[in-house]
Write a structure and sequence with these properties.
mainly alpha
Length: 354
């Protein structure tokens, strides 16, 4: 835990130095670069025991070494363009490509960290008005998945969401579709992000909110058929029903953030029209949230949309008057630190012994 806590305290220190109103030139760029670099080190140099499936991905990495390029290429074509059995053929080609440079799994983890965190840093730099807060939210709510666990979906998210969102902003549909389809060869769940191109700009009207307010409870009641539908189209049949499944803490946080953000939506949108994208993303995240009460792994679907919390909360804080804003800002940072300490996450570098 102490390594993560030191990382967060360093983020706060760098922000105090670089993000002041009278700070140095290009302070935001320097802060995001340093913050991204710190997370690259933590993610890429972690011990193999850190992350629920880090060792499983090592087995896949070692298996790929023994598979020929020809076989991987045929497999990719048969699955993507034919009716071949299997899934995520793009991931094996990506592994094989990285193995041209190195067959060391530790360096591979570093490469994965670079593939996700560099686009993530660019995404934060371009879109976040409070990059410290965005990185603290990542360090508290999202790091456990994107930095140390789901490698395939981490890469897919970098392509579909972090890069694909730029094409949503610039209204370039075919590059966006191409990015999502490419990501789907690495993790098929990325296809769920495809409709967001058309829904991101949906105007937040009272009638629309009334519809979504009725749809979300409806989806919770009928979460079992919804779960079966996604399990069928995704090909991940190993996702079973879990007795007592549920992501109560995350769900309550997401619901609370959404409610407060909708209350302040007019003030936020007046300053930054992209807030409409963030709000629509959170509403979609709430639509998929009932799936996590059947199998926690369905958080994979939710996180394609809930990641926009990192952009929305800074806008939410900025919507308050200056005196209120400082109070809300410091309360938010304090709550994030307390939430992190409460979870007591484990971390070790690769050279440390258990």
């Amino acid at each position: 835990m102490w390594i993560y806590l030191i990382n967060m305290l360093l983020l706060i220190a760098w922000a105090a130095l670089l993000l002041r109103d009278d700070g140095i030139k290009h302070g935001k760029l320097l802060f995001v670069t340093i913050a991204t670099g710190q997370w690259i080190l933590l993610s890429g140099f972690r011990h193999f025991s850190i992350g629920a499936d880090t060792m499983q991905y090592k087995w896949m990495f070692d298996e790929t070494k023994r598979i020929s390029w020809e076989r991987l290429g045929d497999n990719f074509i048969n699955i993507v363009f034919g009716d071949g059995d299997g899934r995520d053929p793009g991931y094996y080609l990506l592994q094989k490509t990285i193995q041209i440079a190195t067959e060391n799994y530790q360096w591979y983890l570093l490469a994965v960290a670079l593939l996700f965190l560099i686009p993530f840093g660019v995404w934060i730099y371009r879109n976040s008005t409070e990059p410290l807060l965005s990185f603290l939210i990542f360090s508290t709510l999202f790091y456990a998945f994107f930095a140390i666990t789901g490698i395939r979906q981490t890469i897919a998210t970098a392509i579909a969401v972090l890069i694909g969102y730029y094409f949503i902003q610039t209204r370039r549909v075919w590059p966006f579709v191409g990015a999502v389809l490419l990501a789907a060869t690495i993790h098929k769940s990325a296809l769920v992000f495809l409709p967001f191109y058309f829904l991101a700009t949906k105007t937040i009207t009272p009638r629309y909110l009334l519809f979504m307010g009725a749809l979300i409870p409806f989806l919770f009641v009928f979460r079992v058929p919804l779960f079966e539908f996604f399990r069928t189209i995704s090909g991940y049949n190993e996702y079973e029903y879990y007795t007592g499944a549920g992501t109560f803490n995350f769900s309550m946080i997401l619901i609370l953030i959404t409610i407060v953000s909708l209350w302040r939506r007019e003030q936020m949108i007046a300053v930054n029209p992209n807030v409409t994208h963030y709000l629509n993303a959170l509403l979609l995240a709430l639509c998929f949230l009932p799936l996590t009460f059947i199998n926690p792994s369905m958080m994979r679907i939710v996180q394609y949309f809930s990641i926009f919390v990192m952009l929305l909360i800074p806008e939410l804080i900025r919507s308050f008057e200056r005196r209120e804003r400082l109070l809300v800002y410091y309360v938010a940072i304090t709550m994030l630190l307390l939430l992190f300490v409460r979870n007591e996450p484990l971390y070790m570098f690769f050279w440390q012994q258990k």
